[in-house]
Amino acid sequence: MNSHTLGDPASPFLVSLGWNEHFSSHFSEHHSAGLKPGRVARVDRISSMVLTENGSVRGEPSTDMLYTSDKEQLPAVGDWVGMMPRPRHDTDSIEVVLPRRSVLARARGGSDSRSAAREIQIIAANVDFVFATHTVIKTNIARLVRDVAQIEQSGSTPVVLLTKSDLLVDPSELLEEIENTAPGLRVHLTSGLTGDRVDELRQYLTGNRTIVFIGTSGVGKSTISNQLLGGELLATREVREYDGKGRHTTTARHLMPIPGGGVLIDTPGMRTFTLQNAEESISEAFGDISELAETCGFRDCRHEGEPGCAVQAAIAGGALNSERFASFLKLGGEMQHERSKIDKASYAEDRTRTRNRTNSYKKNIKKRGQ
Ligand SMILES: Nc1nc2c(ncn2[C@@H]2O[C@H](COP(=O)(O)OP(=O)(O)OP(=O)(O)O)[C@@H](O)[C@H]2O)c(=O)[nH]1
Ligand SMILES: [Mg+2]
User: Fold this and answer.
1) Could you say which architecture CATH assigns to the domain 278-364?
2) 3-97, CATH topology level
3) Is 237 within 8 Å of 221 (Cβ atoms)?
4) Dihedral sign for Cα atoms in the order 22, 85, 66, 30
5) In the chain, at which end, N or C, are there fewer CB atoms within 10 A of the end residue's CB?
6) What angle in degrees, to the nearest 10, is found between the helix axes of 322-367 and 172-181?
7) How far apart are CA 178 and CA 193, in angstroms?
C-alpha cells in the first residue's frame, strides 16, 4: 500500500502494522488536534504498550475515557488509538480508540444468554484472520467447528490450524473427518517444532494483515508464533498433562510485528471460547441440520429413530454426513454440560452472597448492641 494516500501520520512502520485508509480517515480530525496514532500491543491493567512511529510508548486512557466509556470500549490489544504526548509524564494520554473493523471477544462468566453476570472480554481488535488452533492429537472436531462459527460471528475470517503434525504419521484420516464434518474449511497442518509448512501461514500476512492464534494451553500457539517471528521471542513450555496445573505459559495477549509486514497476536490458552450466544453459533455452524430438524414429524424429535425423522432420513439418503451429525450432537451435549456448570456456579454465588449479607446483617446488629 502506498503510504502517501494515507495522510500525514502514515509512516511505513505504521503501514506495516496495518494502518490503512479506514483508520486514516477516522484519524484526520484527531491528527489536526495534535494526537499521534499507534497500535496497542499489550494491555497491563490500565496502561498499554502502544507501537508508534517513534517506537513503543506507554499510554493510559484519559480520565474522560476511563470514566465515560464502557469497559469494552477501552483500549484492547490490536486497537488503533490516538495519543496526546505528555512531556512531564511517564505515559502519554490515550484520547481516542478508532472505530474497530472487527472484534474478537468472549463472554466471561458463561456462554449462556440467560446469565446476567456475563462480561464481554475483548480478546483482540482489528483482526483479519483468526487461527483456531488445535493439535493433531485428540482433536476435538466438534469444538473446532464451533470455534469457526464463533470467529465468523466476530467479523474475522477463521482458519483452522492443526499443530504438532510431527506427532502424527498419517493425517489423512483426520483431515477427511474434518472435511466430512465441515466441508470447505481452510485447514493447515503444521509443526512448530520442525517448522514444517509454517511458511504456508505467511500468505495470511500479505498486505500487512493481522492474525491471531487462539486455542487451549499447550497446543503450540507461541511455538508457531516464534517460527513466524523468526526467533524465540515468546516463551513456550512443556505442558503438565497429569494435573493441568501451572499450565498457561503465555499469560497475556501480545501483538508482535512480523518482519516483512503484518502482525500476529499470541494469546494465553483458553479452555472455552464462547461469545454472546453459543447456541446461536451452533445452529449457525450446523444450519443445514437445524433446517432439517424443523421438518421432522415430532417437534421435539431427538433424531434417534423416531418416525418421520428428517435428519435420519437425510443420513440414510446420503444428503447428510453421519460424522457431521455426530459433531452436532456432541456440541449440544457440551453446551448442556457447560450450562449445568454455570447454573451450579450461579447457585453457589447466590448462596455466598446471601451468606455474606446475613453475616454483615448479624455484625451490624451486634455493633448496635441489639
Ligand atoms: N512435538 C511437537 N511439540 C510442540 C509443537 N509445538 C509446540 N510443541 C510443544 O508443546 C509445548 C507447548 O507449546 P507452547 O507453544 O508453549 O503452547 P501454547 O499454545 O503457546 O500454550 P499457552 O501459552 O499455555 O497457551 C511446548 O513444550 C512445545 O515445545 C510441535 O509442533 N510439535
Ligand atoms: Mg503460549
Assistant:
1) Orthogonal Bundle (1.10)
2) OB fold (Dihydrolipoamide Acetyltransferase, E2P) (2.40.50)
3) no
4) negative
5) C
6) 80
7) 23
Per-residue pLDDT of the chain (370 residues; tens, 9 = 90+): 444 445 555 789 999 999 999 999 999 999 999 999 999 999 998 899 999 999 999 999 999 999 888 888 899 999 999 999 998 889 999 999 999 998 898 876 544 444 445 577 889 999 999 999 999 998 889 888 888 888 887 778 999 999 999 999 999 999 999 999 988 999 999 999 999 999 999 999 999 999 999 999 999 999 999 999 997 778 787 765 544 455 678 888 999 999 999 999 999 988 766 654 556 667 777 888 888 999 999 988 989 889 999 999 999 999 999 988 888 887 777 666 666 655 555 555 555 555 554 555 555 556 555 4
| Nearest CA owner, ligand 1 atom 2 | 164
Q: How far apart are CA 181 and CA 145, in angstroms?
A: 8
CA distance 75 to 195: 34
CA of 175 from ligand 2 middle (Å) equals 25
Options 1.10.8.60, 3.40.50.300, 3.40.1790.10, 3.90.1300.10; CATH for 103-266 is: 3.40.50.300
The DSSP code sequence of 193-225 is: TT-TTGGGGGGGGTTT-EEEEE-STTSSHHHHH
From the centroid of its chain, how far is CA 334?
Answer: 19
Q: How are beta strands 254-257 and 129-135 bridged, if at all?
A: unpaired
Which atom of ligand 1 is closest in space to residue 217's alpha carbon? 25
**Best mutation site among 223, 256, 271 for ligand 1, i.e. most ligand atoms within 8 A of its Cβ?**
223
Distance of CA 14 to the CA centre of its chain: 24
Ligand nearest to the CA of 164: 1
> What's the CA-to-centroid distance between 80 and ligand 1, angstroms?
30
Domain boundaries defined on the chain? 3-97, 103-266, 278-364
